[in-house]
Each structure stands twice: as C-alpha cells, then as structure tokens.
Write a structure and sequence with these properties.
Elements lengths: L2 H15 L17 H43 L15 H15 L5 H9 L4 H4 L9 E2 L8 E11 L7 E10 L4 E6 L6 E3 L2 H4 L12 H12 L3 E4 L2 H8 L8 E3 L4 H4 L9 H9 L10 H14 L1 H11 L28
Parallel strand pairs: 2-6, 6-7
Antiparallel strand pairs: 1-4, 2-3, 2-5, 3-4
Length: 343
C-alpha cells in the first residue's frame, strides 16, 4: 500500500471517529431517589425558573434600551430643533429692535398716556410753572401776543405814618390768556416809602433804580387794557392803585366767582388758597411775584371759563339791537291829529 492510500484511509477513519454526542435523558423513578437528590432537583428547578425570569427581564430591558437609544441620539444630533409650541417669534431681529425702540419712545415719558390726556385737557397749571424766558422790569414785551384776555396783578409798598394801611403801587405785571408775560414794570412811588414789605412784596429800594414813573406805566397799561377782557383777583384794588378804570362788563374777578367763594364759606377767598386747592400750586410761600400771581389768576379763569361767562351774562345780558335800526331815515313819523270842522 502506498503512502497516499494509507493517508486517505486514516483520514476517513478519523472523520467517523469524531461525532457530536447529543444529550441523553434517562428516565428515573422518583420513588427510588434519595432525599439529597430530591433537594437537588428542587434547587435546580428554582434556579432555572429564576434564571429564565432574569433572562426575560434582560431581553425586555435590552429591547427598551435599543428602542430608546436611537431617539436620544436623534435629539442629540439635532439640538437646534425646537418644538413648534416653543418656537421664537419669526419677526426679524432688526424689526423687533425697531419696535422695541418705538415702544420705549412712546412710553418713555414720566406720565402714562391717560395722565397725558388729562394734563392736556387741564392746561390751567402749565402756564404758571413753565419758564417764559421773560425779563423782570421788561416793560411791554416785543414777542408775546396780546389776545383778547389779559390778567393783571400788582404789588404794593407801605407809605406814610401808617404803612400797614396806606399802600402805593410798586410793580405791575400783565399776562395773556396762555400765561405769557405781556408787561412787567417796577413803579417809582411819589410818596416816601416807610415799609417796603420786601418779605411779602419782593420789592427792595434797589429795584427803584430802573423803575418807571407812574404816568409812564398808566399810559402803557391803559393801552393794553383798552378793548380787552381784564381778569384779576380783587382787581378793583389794582385799578385803584393804578388810578385807572375799566368797564365792569369787561372784568372777570376770580375773588367773586361763586364756585371759588364756596371754599371760603361764601366770603372772598385768598389767591393762594384757590391756587393750591384748584390748581395744585403753591404760590406766595415767600416773597410774592406779580407775574406768578397773574398767571395763577388766568389759570383759575381758564379752568372755569364757561361758568364765568354764564355767570357774567346774568349780570350783563347781551343787548339785541334790531337790524336796520338807527337814527334819521327810520325814525317813526308822528301821526297828525285829525281836526274836525265845527259846523
């Protein structure tokens, strides 16, 4: 036998020799088993059931983890994607900035819109507090418009042996309907001043250096008052100090207005009281200013303008003049008496 044949025979025998043995189950009689063997079988059954349960739980857990993992990876892969419910505004950043700036500009004032509307409707306080860039002792203003309505206030100083009772004019100020200064002048008294009342009037001897004479002031104030409605607080005292007069029909006195007299129990209220109560303004805390007082007086008139005019019409009703009435041609001719002849 050659070597090749021997090798082949040996290889065939080795293949038949290598076999896979399947497990063999032996039937055993349980009655012949020992107690130790029975315990071993019970233990093996319990461990087998526990291992089966553990394997089942592991499979479920692996399945859950395998199904959840891709979702987590997807979310991690796309962190910029946000739910549609929480998506930011699609308005471009530039437009949003412009809208924010416009909203800030609209609400940037110290007052809310409702407050601004109220302040625009009630303009009585504004002219008293706003600076007018007017000069003291300026005389007749070259820029302020005169208008139909003017308010006047005067400051006095004491003269004679009884300065508390005897007063003369030392300053006069006039403002228009809006509170702009129309006229302001110190007035040089003709009498010897015995009490300047500086703590009240705000006037001192130094102010008399450039003061105008009474005659100059009378002329200028008279021209301003001519044909206009004069508003004042106890204005008759100011007219007496100026030695001037004005038609009563063209005077509006805040000290005599029925609504304002209520807070004084029907008497004549002080201007300071009216300004604080109705305008919320504090005036005359120290030395008085005739310009400030005139503005407060005009503000009080503006506040109750309709009521002022209605009250005024009761005293001074408008006279209705028939159209075409006049002298001369339209005079009624006297009827001649008929005379009868005697028979």
């Amino acid at each position: 036998m050659d070597i090749v044949s021997l090798y082949r025979e040996t290889l065939v025998k080795s293949q038949h020799a290598i076999k896979v043995f399947e497990p063999v189950t032996f039937a055993m009689d349980a009655s012949n088993l020992s107690s130790n063997w029975k315990k071993l079988q019970a233990t093996l059954k319990q461990s087998g059931a526990a291992s089966t349960t553990a394997i089942t739980k592991r499979k479920i857990a692996d399945r859950d983890s395998s199904s959840a993992a891709p979702r987590k990876r997807k979310f991690a892969d796309h962190p910029h994607k946000v739910s549609s419910k929480t998506q930011p505004s699609k308005t471009p950043l530039k437009k949003r900035k412009m809208a924010d700036s416009s909203a800030t500009g609209a609400t940037g004032s110290s007052e809310p819109s409702a407050t601004r509307r109220r302040s625009s409707t009630n303009t009585s306080a504004a002219p008293v507090t706003v600076s007018r860039n007017a000069k003291v002792n300026e005389g007749r203003s070259a820029t302020a418009e005169l208008g139909k309505y003017i308010a006047m206030d005067c400051e006095m100083v004491g003269v004679g042996p009884n300065p508390d009772n005897d007063s003369v004019l030392a300053r006069v100020s006039i403002v228009n309907f809006n509170g702009d200064q129309i006229y302001d002048s110190y007035v040089r008294p003709k009498e010897m001043v015995t009490d300047w009342r500086t703590h009240v009037s705000g006037i001192a001897p130094k102010h008399m250096v450039e003061a105008r004479t009474l005659e100059e002031v009378q002329k200028e104030v008279g021209e301003i008052m001519n044909g206009r409605i004069l508003v004042g607080h106890a204005v008759s005292n100011d007219l007496d100090a100026l030695l001037l007069s004005h038609p009563k029909r063209d005077i509006r006195d805040t000290s005599k207005h029925a609504e304002y007299r209520k807070i004084a129990g029907g008497g004549s209220p002080r201007l300071k009281m009216l300004a604080e109560h109705f305008l919320g303004l504090k005036i005359q805390d120290g030395a008085h200013s005739s310009v400030e007082d005139a503005r407060a007086t005009m503000a009080l008139y503006r506040r109750e303008k309709d009521a002022f005019e209605k009250e005024h019409l009761k005293k001074w009703p408008i006279r209705n003049v028939p159209a075409g009435s006049g002298d001369g041609d339209h005079k009624k001719k006297k009827k001649k008496k008929k005379t009868t002849r005697k028979r």
